[in-house]
Specification:
The structure holds 2 protein chains of 2 kinds. Chain A is an alpha/beta fold. Chain A has one domain: Thiamin diphosphate (ThDP)-binding fold, Pyr/PP domains (Rossmann fold). Chain A has 12 helices and 8 strands. Chain A has helices at about 15-20, 25-50, 65-70, 85-90, 95-105, 135-150, 170-180, 215, 230-245, 270-280, 285-295, 300-320, and strands at about 5, 80, 155-160, 185-190, 195, 200, 220-225, 250-255. In chain A, the strands form 2 sheets. In chain A, strands 1-7-8-4-3-2 form a 6-stranded parallel beta sheet, with helices on both faces. In chain A, strand 3 (about 155-160), helix 7 (about 170-180) and strand 4 form a beta-alpha-beta unit. In chain A, helix 3 (about 65-70) packs parallel to helix 9 (about 230-245). Chain A is globular. The termini of chain A are far apart. Chain B is an alpha/beta fold. Chain B folds into 2 domains: about 1-180, Thiamin diphosphate (ThDP)-binding fold, Pyr/PP domains (Rossmann fold, 3-Layer(aba) Sandwich); about 195-325, Rossmann fold (3-Layer(aba) Sandwich), CATH 3.40.50. Chain B contains 11 helices and 14 strands. Chain B has helices at about 5-20, 45-50, 60-70, 90-105, 130-135, 150-160, 210-225, 240-250, 265-280, 300-305, 310-324, and strands at about 1-5, 25-30, 55, 75-80, 110-115, 140-145, 165-170, 180, 195-200, 205, 230-235, 235-240, 255-260, 290. In chain B, the strands form 3 sheets. Chain B has a 7-stranded mixed beta sheet, with helices on both faces. Chain B has a 5-stranded mixed beta sheet with strand order 9-11-10-13-14, sandwiched between helices. In chain B, helix 7 (about 210-225) links the parallel strand 10 and strand 11. The N and C termini of chain B lie far apart (about 45 Å). The interface of A and B includes residues 120, 142 and 346 of A. The structure holds thiamine diphosphate and magnesium ion (MG). Thiamine diphosphate binds near residues 84, 134, 163 and 194 of chain A. Magnesium ion binds next to strand 5 of chain A.
């Protein structure tokens, strides 16, 4: 039996306005979702052209969850997005050409060729680059929240994790610590129902991951992760609550990973009807339909947004291809920080 | 100058930095109300309050991972492991995140992890280890191993000031046993600069931590044989003072490397290899290593004595080298 609160879908435009989004914001959200998917689709093409070393991951199906949560954050808030959360980088303002450069291991990617795929973040935009080990960024996000609490700043940290990685101790320790100290953090579970090939019932035995929140002393909420407005509303509530001193929330966004774990994986183990059922609630298509029905999205607006995104992606790809390869002579540079590295505003 | 124990000197260093810099805070198990398992932070919570001396849950991953996040947000966390041995539970956060962050993402992670380490009091396999070699092997981490009260204070202040993750190994067997004059004012002791604990001309002992005192006693016994032994206290294992070690090796032409950690792959191997590579022509004997045998740390005093290098072992090693 579920313990977490199961969030309702968002209804009218009025309700959305109350949650803090005007019509322009909504079109911006739509555009960000298109860019998110577009970056990953173009990335996939680059991969097939042999231009991306290593592996390639996408967050297809997770665009609403990532964009919805990131839209609810302020620029002062920080986060540790993962490999399904391209939308977070897009909302925060990472330019797509730098993402393509990162995919290709070029110097202009946020990781400067030192790390690949989505192991990147622009610190200046308040994001911290993920490591492979999951969910190792949760204790780090918790530490960010601790810093905000110590300094009594009205800022919130958002830590992402997958439902598979919820099995590891890092999640437990982070939630225990954040719960005991009522830290300003929102734990966002991207529950895409598969951890590589492992289904949810082999990762956790409760109905929802968010059911655990009760045991840590805070609220758990499950939301339809394909409904960007519902995700936004719940994330906003959780973030506002954390900012006001109300402590953590565990927000679980339920989606389906619409592709294999990574490009090499055809996801043969996912039952076909499951894909068919979730294809009907494609996050972008659902939101487009909602915008047409509730916000008078017109054909010409739609075309204009789509054309703008296409142009952005094409020029971004060109620019990324021009980015140089990293110089092997720099390989051993910067293993240790120097005092000048601390010469940044937030280390003062 | 006041006479302080090694433990009091650590407290003094930490208190000095916490008074000077509001960004510095301490987090660990029982560090607040109780003052830490060894009382390093006794009285700190009264002075600095519960949000700068934070009693953490029994969760080393959250402590070190949390310190990393807080450092990224501009604070200067000092995390205490109740015993160095428990750092295994936070290995991932040191090695996977903190150590690689500067190289990979350009972000410095200025954290200090305090690690009460070392044996000699029947702590057994899980309360006696000296894991500095494992961490010295990880690019991006620094490892500090003070031997004297003066260094305990100066190196801790340097560690807190340093923009990197620094592991500060405080030897438990020195806590209350070693007492010396310590300057009252704030000072730093640079990381990567060895200290000549004792000058000599015939044999060099390269060591650190509690073994400095074992080497000292052995050296005194060699005086009676007419053999002059130099003792170099490395102070920090990463970075380590290669020039000072090579200079001493060239001067005496015979070297004994001594450590309390186990032998195979211990940091002594790195030192011996470096001397072989860079000072081979100056040597009059093969470099000798004395270290703990390759076993877990035993509990019974009889066994522990056989495990931790003793003064007699070092004396025998020095005599062998002297006669070579
Ligand atoms: C500690 C750890 N073990 C194993 C892996 C290898 N691995 C990468 S992603 C993954 C599945 C993760 O599933 P989930 O947490 O649900 O995230 P998703 O990929 O579905 O978004 C695994 C096993 C890893 N990255 N980290
Ligand atoms: Mg998953």
């Amino acid at each position: 039996m579920a313990i977490a609160r199961e969030a309702e879908p968002v209804g009218s435009l009025t309700e959305v306005r109350e949650a803090g989004l005007d019509r322009d914001d909504l079109l911006g959200v739509y555009r960000n979702m298109l860019i998110t998917r577009g970056v990953e689709e173009r990335g996939h093409i680059l991969y097939r052209q042999g231009k991306i070393p290593g592996s390639f991951y996408t967050g297809r199906g997770n665009e609403a969850a990532a964009v919805g949560v990131a839209t609810a954050m302020t620029s002062e808030d920080v986060g540790t997005p993962l490999h399904r959360d391209m939308g977070v980088h897009i909302v925060r303002g990472v330019e797509p050409w730098r993402i393509f450069a990162n995919y290709m291991g070029r110097v202009d990617g946020p990781a400067r060729g030192r790390d690949g795929n989505v192991h990147m973040a622009d610190e200046r935009l308040g994001m911290i680059a993920m490591v492979s080990h999951l969910p190792a960024m949760l204790p780090v996000a918790t530490g960010c929240a601790l810093a905000f609490r110590i300094r009594e700043e009205a800022r919130v940290a958002v830590g992402w994790f997958g439902e598979g990685a919820s099995a590891r101790g890092d999640a437990h320790e982070s939630m225990t610590f954040a719960g005991t100290r009522k830290l300003p953090i929102v734990f966002v579970c991207d529950n895409n129902q598969w951890a590589y090939s492992t289904p949810t019932h082999f990762e956790y035995a409760t109905e929802h991951v968010a059911d655990r929140a009760e045991a840590y002393g805070f609220e758990g909420v499950v939301v339809d992760g394909t409904d960007v407005l519902a995700v936004y509303r719940e994330a906003r509530r959780a973030i506002d609550k954390a900012r006001a001193g109300g402590g953590p929330t565990l927000l679980e966004c339920l989606t389906l990973r619409m592709e294999g774990h990574a490009v090499h994986d055809d996801a043969f183990y996912v039952p076909k009807p499951m894909f068919e059922r979730w294809a009907e609630s494609d996050p972008i298509e659902s939101f487009r339909t909602w915008l047409r029905a509730n916000a008078e999205l017109t054909d010409s607006e739609e075309d204009e947004i789509a054309a703008g995104v296409k142009k952005l992606l094409t020029s971004s790809l060109e620019r990324a291809e021009e980015s140089p390869q990293p110089d092997p002579a720099t390989l051993t540079d910067g293993v240790y920080a120097t005092p000048e590295d601390l010469d940044t505003p937030h280390h003062k | 100058m006041a006479e302080l124990t090694y433990l009091q000197a650590i407290s003094d260093g930490l208190r000095t930095e916490m008074r000077r810099d509001k960004r510095v805070f301490l987090i660990g198990e029982d560090v607040g109300v109780y003052g830490g398992a060894f009382k390093v932070s006794a009285g700190f919570q009264e002075e600095f309050g519960p949000w700068r001396v934070i009693d953490a849950p029994l969760a080393e991953t959250a402590i070190v991972g949390g310190a990393t996040g807080a450092a990224m947000m501009g604070l200067r966390p000092v995390a205490e492991m109740q015993f160095a041995d428990f750092i295994s539970c936070a290995w991932d956060h040191l090695v996977t995140i903190a150590a690689k962050q500067r190289w990979r993402a350009g972000t410095p992670v200025p954290i200090v992890v305090r690690l009460p380490s070392g044996g000699g009091f029947s702590g057994g396999p899980f309360h006696s280890q000296n894991p500095e070699s494992s961490f010295a092997h990880i690019p991006g981490l620094k490892c500090v191993c003070p031997a004297t009260p003066e260094d305990a204070k100066g190196l801790l202040i340097s560690a807190i000031e340093d923009p990197n993750p620094v592991l500060y190994f405080e030897h438990k067997h020195l806590y209350r046993r070693i007492k010396a004059e310590v300057p009252e004012e704030r000072y730093t002791t640079p990381l990567g600069k060895a200290r000549t604990h004792r000058e000599g001309s015939d044999i060099s002992v390269i060591t650190w931590g509690a073994m400095v005192y074992t080497a000292e006693e052995a050296a005194q016994q060699l005086d009676a044989d007419g053999v002059s032994v130099e003792v170099i206290d490395l102070r920090t294992v990463m970075p380590w003072d290669k020039p000072a070690v090579l200079e001493s090796a060239r001067k005496t032409s015979k070297v004994l490397v001594l450590h309390e950690d186990t032998r195979t792959g211990g940091f002594g191997a790195e030192i011996a290899a470096t001397i072989a590579e860079e000072a081979f022509e100056d040597l009059d004997a093969p470099v000798k290593r004395i270290a703990a045998p390759d076993t877990p740390v035993p509990f019974s005093p009889a066994l522990e004595k056989a495990f931790i290098p003793q003064v007699e072992d070092v004396v025998a090693g020095l005599r062998e080298l002297a006669e070579y």
